[in-house]
């Protein structure tokens, strides 16, 4: 059932073959980013969940490694994390290399229970052995999963954030050795509680001299664009419990972004300057239709890797995301123009972008005061819009519209309209759009607003252009950049 496609995305991680979902076990060690991921080694649909593995020096070029943790005896390896145990607290260390310890959910298909287990590596994460006294936390529950572990230096202990998915709770455990865990506290239900809670994450971020704790909670369903997405809470953590501080954010509910295809994101552990910025990516898909997107020899990919920062505006904090800088090293061709009109910009696009190699990015500045009606960035296939992004002046909104798929993603939830209301006084802002074969990621306002969406266009007759109403035909871009990659 493979649908032919010209080539792989160039800026996005894809597995060599088969099904993937969540990113797992992300840690950084000796210049290498490790990415594990939910993987079915045997097929193109979810099943036999195991941890696939890849490493990268720059988050863009990935080296595929053998499956790191495999399903065994009908016990699947669900999502989780990995840490470098520098002080050998676990005692798993042998030589001079610190052990790498993976903490994952073991899903026993026979009992239906989910428990937390560990495995360790003595070769920089190349190969893992499962601990012989697993599980390390067992509540005999069916929905208890996705442990994320980090080292809490103030108390010299490990902390695990893990979810009770159906109860819409996050639990916090502590440990001195990664083997024996004590429950410290619980958080939730809170925020969006209609959908199940999965893949939680807790970390600290600074903005100048202020410091805030972030609790990320992935929502299997009922997120802002429908289906899967990520809500976050900002507050305080004292080493034992997380407390939301509602005065930190403008809105009571906070979502990391507005698109449909960014899920199960958690941050890398051990990257430089961790409280200043975190690195992360998400599974670029949505449980509403994840098994219905075309199979290209693989099914599923990760979002573009991003830098996550804390930002403050008018007294309120929020998280912002921008594509990692390393992407720029892969630019192959660039065009940059100042003071260029819409028609000329479109001529640039058509000369620059080949529909059989649809991997490019563009950056341009929108000046609301110079627009009468709207400015639309449109990707069309065979004449009709597949996906488009619009600044709507009258509504003062950013609008992302994705049409029914021409490759028949057979799901009523696939077509979508995503809207974000801008502040009244919005000044000019930059829009950055990354298109990579079958995804479009839009970043505006320095990463405050992000829309991540898959799209499936016919592989020929693709047109990329700006559109505007009659009144706005004379619109001139202050600057525009257009880039292809690899
Ligand atoms: C999230 C999730 C996790 C689980 C994994 C199973 O997408 O449902 O909660 O561990 O996928 O593949």
List keywords for this structure.
486 residues, mainly beta, Tachylectin-2, Chain A, 5-stranded mixed sheet, 2% helix, 51% strand, disordered N terminus, binds beta-D-fructofuranose
Task: Explain how this protein is built.
The chain has 486 residues and is an all-beta fold. The protein folds into two domains: 306 residues, Tachylectin-2, Chain A (5 Propeller); 157 residues, Exo-inulinase, domain 1 (Jelly Rolls). Helices cover 2% and strands 51% of the residues. The chain has one helix and 33 strands. The strands form seven sheets. Strands 23-33-24-29-30-31 form a six-stranded antiparallel beta sheet, with helices on one face. A hairpin with a 2-residue loop joins strand 25 and strand 26. The longest helix has 11 residues. It is globular and about 70 Å long. The two termini are 29 Å apart. 46% of the residues are buried. It binds beta-D-fructofuranose. Beta-D-fructofuranose binds next to strand 1, strand 5, strand 10 and strand 14.
Question: Could you give the topology of this structure?
Answer:
Elements: E1 18-29, E2 32-40, E3 50-56, E4 63-69, E5 75-84, E6 100-108, E7 114-121, E8 129-130, E9 137-141, E10 144-152, E11 157-164, E12 169-175, E13 182-187, E14 197-207, E15 210-219, E16 229-237, E17 242-244, E18 263-267, E19 278-283, E20 298-299, E21 306-313, E22 316-323, E23 331-341, H1 342-352, E24 359-366, E25 374-381, E26 384-392, E27 397-402, E28 416-421, E29 429-436, E30 439-444, E31 449-454, E32 462-468, E33 476-485
Parallel strand pairs: 1-20
Antiparallel strand pairs: 1-2, 2-3, 3-4, 5-6, 6-7, 7-8, 7-9, 10-11, 11-12, 12-13, 14-15, 15-16, 16-17, 18-19, 19-21, 21-22, 23-33, 24-29, 24-33, 25-26, 25-32, 26-27, 27-28, 29-30, 30-31
